[in-house]
């Protein structure tokens, strides 16, 4: 502890940095992914993302994850924030991005344990779904909120 107190047992899950992005195509659709998440025993709708490899720049990692999971490449990727999922237990952060200008350039390149369905949802429908609390992945909700703030600010200038 900061005051020097020793805590006899405290368990921390150590994970590398992660990234995710609200990814918008050139047709103003959000690229979403649906995949089974064993801890919650459900297939949930998410935005693309994943772990940053050792020594990899987070901006490069998010572009890589977008391409691998969805087959889309984006002309612009902007940093929108950084959050800690559960700093009482997890030691990592997630960097959040807004990717725009997406074009489908390839098929998916998934890891052997991944089974990801790609969905394209109109951006205003995603905003409505967010307001109705239809997304359960908290980090992704944060990312979408910050991404919509950035998009809204750009629209007013």
Summarize the structure in words.
This protein has a single domain (18-150), classed as Alpha-Beta Complex (Nucleoside Triphosphate Pyrophosphohydrolase), CATH 3.90.79.10. It is α+β, with helices and mostly antiparallel strands and 157 residues long. The chain starts with 17 loop residues before the first strand and ends with a helix. The radius of gyration is 17 Å and the shape is globular. The model has no long low-confidence stretch (mean pLDDT 93). Helix content is 25%, strand content 33%. It has helices at residues 58-70, 123-131, 138-155; strands at 18-25, 29-37, 42-46, 49-51, 72-73, 76-83, 94-104, 117-122. Strands 1, 2, 3, 4, 5, 6, 7 and 8 form an eight-stranded mixed beta sheet that branches. The chain is built from three helices and eight strands. A hairpin with a 3-residue loop joins β1 and β2 (29-37).
CATH architecture: Alpha-Beta Complex
Q: Order of helices and strands, N to C? A: EEEEHEEEEHH
User: How much of the polypeptide forms β-strand, as a percent range?
Assistant: 25-35%
Give the N-to-C terminal Cα separation.
46 Å
CATH level-3 fold name = Nucleoside Triphosphate Pyrophosphohydrolase
Work out the oligomeric state of the chains in this entry: single chain
Work out the count of structural domains: 1
- Extended strand count: 8
Mean pLDDT reading: 93
Question: Radius of gyration, rounded?
Answer: 17 Å
How many helices in DSSP terms? 3
Contiguous low-pLDDT stretches (5 residues minimum) are none
How would the global form be characterised?
globular
Characterize the biggest β-sheet: 8 strands, mixed
């Amino acid at each position: 502890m900061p005051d020097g107190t020793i805590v006899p047992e405290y368990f921390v899950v150590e994970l590398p940095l992660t990234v995710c992005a609200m990814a918008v195509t050139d047709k103003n659709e959000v690229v979403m992914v649906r995949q089974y998440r064993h801890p919650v025993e459900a297939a949930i709708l998410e935005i693309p993302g994943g772990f940053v490899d050792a020594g990899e720049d987070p901006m490069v990692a998010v572009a890589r994850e977008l391409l691998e999971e969805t087959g889309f490449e984006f002309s612009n990727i902007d940093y929108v924030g950084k959050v800690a999922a559960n700093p009482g237990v997890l030691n990592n952060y997630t960097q959040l991005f807004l990717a725009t200008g997406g074009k489908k350039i390839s098929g998916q390149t998934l890891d052997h344990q991944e089974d990801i369905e790609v969905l394209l949802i109109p951006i205003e429908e995603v905003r409505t779904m967010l307001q109705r609390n239809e997304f359960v992945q908290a980090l992704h909700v944060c990312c979408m909120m910050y991404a919509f703030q950035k998009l809204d600010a750009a629209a007013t200038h």
